[in-house]
Amino acid sequence: MLRSTYLLIFIGILFLSSGLKAQYFMSSNSWKKQRHEVYFGGGAGNFLGDLGGKNQIGKDYSYADLEMSLTRPSVTAGYRYRLAKHWGWRSDLNYMRLWGKDALTEEIFRNNRNLSFRTDLVELSTNLEFAIYINKGGNRYHIKNTRKRRYKSNSHYIYFFGGVGAFYFNPKAQYNDQWYALQPLSTEGQGLPGGPKKYKRVSVSIPMGMGYRLSLSKQWTIGLEYNFRKTFTDYIDDVHGTYFDPELLFQYKGPVAVALADPSKGVIPTATMPNSDGTGAQRGDKQLDSYMALEIKVGYILKTKKRKKTRAKF
Description:
The chain is α+β, with helices and mostly antiparallel strands. It has helices at about 1-30, 110-115, 145-150, 245-255, 255-260; strands spanning about 35-50, 70-80, 85-100, 115-135, 155-170, 170-175, 180, 200-215, 220-230, 290-300.
């Protein structure tokens, strides 16, 4: 009887050990079955730049200056490739509409400036992901199921990412119920005699952020992600430097350009007048613009083709 008990305990230990090894093997290599994933999603985007903001003097790159009422929808689609258990590479295509409006702030100088813009922004980026936390849990003890089902589990990922992107933007403003592209109007004299160089409507971004992703099944995932972009342009809102001579602007670009370059309310009469040394009055600062999005993403994991085993011939 005692020997039988010892034998049963020994067999149980072997069975448990075998099960733990199988569980470890499957969990440690399960990421290889999730190498390829396509995803899509959407959420909300916003902008930090020269225009709009809270009822205070602007703070560069500060969320305290974020005008939440100008939050607009964003859309994303992409492809992810798992390089290793904790590492992944992905490419994203993003679209969002960004807005800025001085009239929404009660800060006297910005409100008097009365500039506004909107732009449809399209971005293509590539990013490297690192999962700082991976947790597996699920129906491991369903005895009636097969081993494959027994060790099936959901995966929880918390990750950081960073990369590089390129984006297109085209700031516009409204005048007499019609929207005009601002870059061709040279609102700060860009490209005109005595003015700065004309800016390009394509620029570089540095995406960075973090996210959470949950595997719902072998094929489907869902997650929440925050993506902040540092850029290398200050012209997403068409505001960067100083006011340009309105007479020269009228001569080269016409009355619409003059009206959109300086729609100030006149509450501070000298705000847009040239300085005492003849230089143009300040219209914006030279801090680079940024934008961000908070999005929900749904992913579909593509099936990985099984490698055919080759048998040695003797």
